[in-house]
Amino acid sequence: MSKIATQIKDTATSVRTKIQRRSKPTLSFPLRSLSNVKYHPKQGFLQLKGKKKVRTLTVSTVKTFAQTLRMMSQAKTLVEDDEIMTKREAYYVSKNWQDARFDEQPESDTVIDDIEALFQVNREQLGFIPEEKGGEVAGKLVVIDRDSETGKELRIDCTKFGSGAYSIPISIEHLKFEAKAKFVLAIETAGMFQRLVKHNYWRKANCILISMGGVPTRACRRFIRRLADELKLPVYAFVDCDPYGMFNIYRTLKVGSGNAAHINRYFCVPKASFLGVTPQDIVDYKLPTHPLKEVDIKRANDALKNDPFVQHYKPWQDSIRQLLEMGVRAEQQAFAVHDLNYVIEHYLPEKLAAPKKFLP
Amino acid sequence: MGKARKKSVKSKTKVTKKVKKKRGVTKKAEPKLAKATRKSAKKPDKKPAEETPAKKDVPRHSTAEDMASRQREISVAEFFTKNRHLLGFDNPRKALLTTIKEGVDNSLDACEEGGILPDVKVVIVPAREEDRFRVTIEDNGPGILKKQIPRIFAKLLYGSKFHRLKMSRGQQGIGISAAGMYGQLTTGKPISITSKTSRNKPAHHYELEIDTKRNEPRIIVDETVDWPVQRGTKVEIELEAKFQKGRQSVEEYLEQTAIANPHVLLQFVTPNGETKTYNRASKELPVETREIKPHPYGVELGVLIKMLHDTKARTLQSFLHSEFSRVSSQVARTICEKAKVSERSRPTRIARQEADNLFKAINQTKIMNPRTDCLSPIGETLILTGLKKQIEADFYTSVTRPPSVYRGNPFQIEAGLAYGGSLQAEGLARVLRYANRVPLLYQQSACAMTRSVLNTAWRNYALSQSAGALPSGPLVIIVHMASVWVPFTSESKEAVAHYPEIIKEVRLALQECGRQLAVFIRRRRKAAESQRKKEYIQQYIPHIAIALREMLELSERQETTIVKQLKDLLERSRS
């Protein structure tokens, strides 16, 4: 029996034993929030501090308690049968549970996240896979995959997708890589990625381009992490200059999230650094801006106050304050104001000339 | 009549004809007419006269003599013939209800005064003509002396109740004769009365008409008949009417009467021939009430002058002492001192100015509140009995407030609530208003009792209530005002006037009931919540057991055990 199946069985046994002893069964989960994580620069990711949330079976928790146990049972079956199930499918399977079924998918997603945290594994290990797309890759990278029927090796050359790109699969642990590139450029928007691909920027800069499409998915983060670790490549993030780009996208890429801190060790890229767009760039490149929205200001202040990552890095605190003072934000596509290819011909080369100056 | 005369003197020719018709009858309309005339009179008088000399019906100015020839006394009966809405005969539907109401009220008053448990029978039979009904109200009361019958039933403002301060249903002596008059007016048929005062005496049968000009009875039939009852009175009136069910119907009136009068046996035969019986739920007659003298605070100047004139007392001091409640010789002397009138002066010789001073002095002197044993409330127990008899609910409560006083008149407020059960859960609460045990069905919004119900913060008592509205929910609210003189807003006795003392007492009574109700509602909600939780738990416990069985590969028996253990566990933790 696999390790996870055993873990699930142990938890179920403890619940049953408590019931038999006429005491209320409990399940304890690590608290999933920024307040329960700390940052160690040496390990390079946000780690759980150990605060626990104990769910005791009472009148008010009986429904979630029942749902959690049934979902655990589902996970055990998946693991034992080596089967997978998307989160959406899990939601549909619950429709067989009569009263205990989920009404909306977010409810079942939360229960899956709870179980994941309970066993300190990622949901893929429990057999639950996400629906979301992993991200796109173009440039000097060869991905070595296997044909799922014949088991034959497949070499995928990411320079040969023309104006298209290689799509990161949901599960990437079995992949192998070969590359001669000098760095990885992780880009926030598909639009900017398209521009760089169209002009074969990867050839010019000798790099691997990855489109994250907003906050990078777990697979995308894991993919970049393995490139960084196994090919020993630096990773530069190129995102919008606003609190969302800085903390939701970049921070999650580099050190993981507070919500899924139990799996950050696998899904972070500690070697990543922040190429741009920085608040200083707005000044230096005279970028057109928009005023900061209220939610931006709230997010920035929140980061200053609660984010252990920001609290560790003085340069980040300075940058946020500078941004708040300027009261504006700028998108990475704003360089188009000078010239459509200004970003390729001037901005990126100029920034890449001095990677040491990147924000940590 | 002095007023009317002045005005008709001023009013000029154009409208004189109209005025003549209406004079003295529509008091309200007249000042307007007079005004209009005055305005037109300001215009140069000559012009119209010169321009239209050819027309024959050109208005002529009347002389004082002309007008004097048209001025004459108006009988009360004539006045009410034209203003029957004032007495509750606005439309055929209301006329039927008012007729029955006046008859039943009289029957109940008579029975109670005679110490007899009332058996009242109301019969409505459709008459030959369309829209006409023959109404019979029969009681087992003490009967009426032969010589009194004509005046009681065919003379307005004749009765035993107006001149005394005693709690009774009837007050003015208008009701039943007005009903007879309405019948006479709409069908031309006389009112028929049969009455018997004892087993050994014969029953008298009268058929009466009212001479509206003189407000005197006209006897059509006067005979002795054989009526096989011990004693009682039977009144029959044929009238133009409309029989309806539902709100403000005869049935509703009888039902509400049954609630506030659990000692009454009511039988009702509808025009369709159905018989409805409202059984007696208590053999306790209301306590016989004392008659009281007026309290000085409740007397107006005019009444005071009249009393001074009519008294047999020789000195002012003894007048005050003997004619009023709560005026001791000492208090009487204080009043005289304050009014700067000698206490030895003869009451009949008191001048108007002195009477005025006396009136002011009375209101400046502190006088004890009137005695309250003249009131006979229904009582908390009997209100509950009445409510339970007619309304099927889950919860009942009632409160009888201590007596209080408005304008020198003692009164007492009672309230009761019935909640839940068969009552409609949606919509607003139903308010049943009573004055001296008589249900008030009309003019709910004009009544002081309703005002108090609206002003009570029902939300404090676990009910919902929108601003300025009645509370909503399965609720019946009853409010009863017992008084020697209920201050109605009109002669048709439909709404109680807004005296602050009355509003306050009603509010206090309702609040007391409300607190009881809140305890009940909260307790019931708690029980429902508890039941809901129990069901909720039992909904999900099996799933915990299923999951454990799947994960631990248990047997079905083991699964059942887990379900049982979990139920015990959660039930225990809940209680």
- Rg of chain B, alpha carbons: 32 Å
Low-confidence blocks of residues of chain B: 1-53
Largest two-chain interface: A-B, 29 and 22 residues
Number of domains of chain B: 5
The major β-sheet of chain B equals: 8 strands, mixed
Name the average pLDDT of chain B: 83
Fourth-level CATH superfamily of the largest domain in chain B: Histidine kinase-like ATPase, C-terminal domain
Number of strands of chain A: 17
Integer count of domains of chain A:
2
Which structural class best describes the helix and strand composition of chain B? alpha+beta
Description:
Chain A has 360 residues and is of the alpha/beta class. Chain A has two domains: 3-129, Arc Repressor Mutant, subunit A, CATH 1.10.10.10; 136-357, 3-Layer(aba) Sandwich (Dna Topoisomerase Vi A Subunit, Chain: A, domain 2), CATH 3.40.1360. Chain A has helices spanning 3-20, 62-81, 87-93, 105-118, 190-198, 201-205, 218-230, 243-255, 279-284, 294-306, 308-312, 314-326, 342-352, and strands spanning 26-30, 37-40, 45-48, 52-56, 85-86, 128-129, 136-139, 141-146, 153-157, 166-167, 176-179, 183-187, 207-211, 235-238, 272-276, 290-291, 328-329. In chain A, helix 2 crosses helix 4 and helix 3 (87-93) packs across helix 4. The model of chain A has no long low-confidence stretch (mean pLDDT 90). By secondary structure, chain B is α+β, with helices and mostly antiparallel strands. Chain B is 41% helix and 18% strand. Chain B is built from 18 helices and 16 strands. Chain B has helices at 2-10, 16-22, 29-42, 46-51, 64-70, 76-82, 92-113, 149-154, 175-187, 250-260, 301-310, 316-323, 329-339, 352-364, 380-390, 448-455, 500-552, 556-574, and strands at residues 119-126, 132-139, 191-196, 203-211, 216-225, 232-240, 265-269, 275-278, 395-400, 404-406, 409-419, 430-435, 438-440, 464-465, 471-472, 475-483. In chain B, helix 1 packs parallel to helix 3 (29-42), helix 7 packs antiparallel against helix 9 (175-187) and helix 10 runs antiparallel to helix 15. The N and C termini of chain B lie far apart (78 Å). The A-B interface holds A 8-9, 12-13, 15-16, 19-20, 22-24, 57-59, 62-63, 65-67, 69-70, 72-73, 76-77, 97-100 and B 533, 536-537, 539-541, 543-544, 546-548, 550-552, 562, 565-566, 568-570, 573-574.
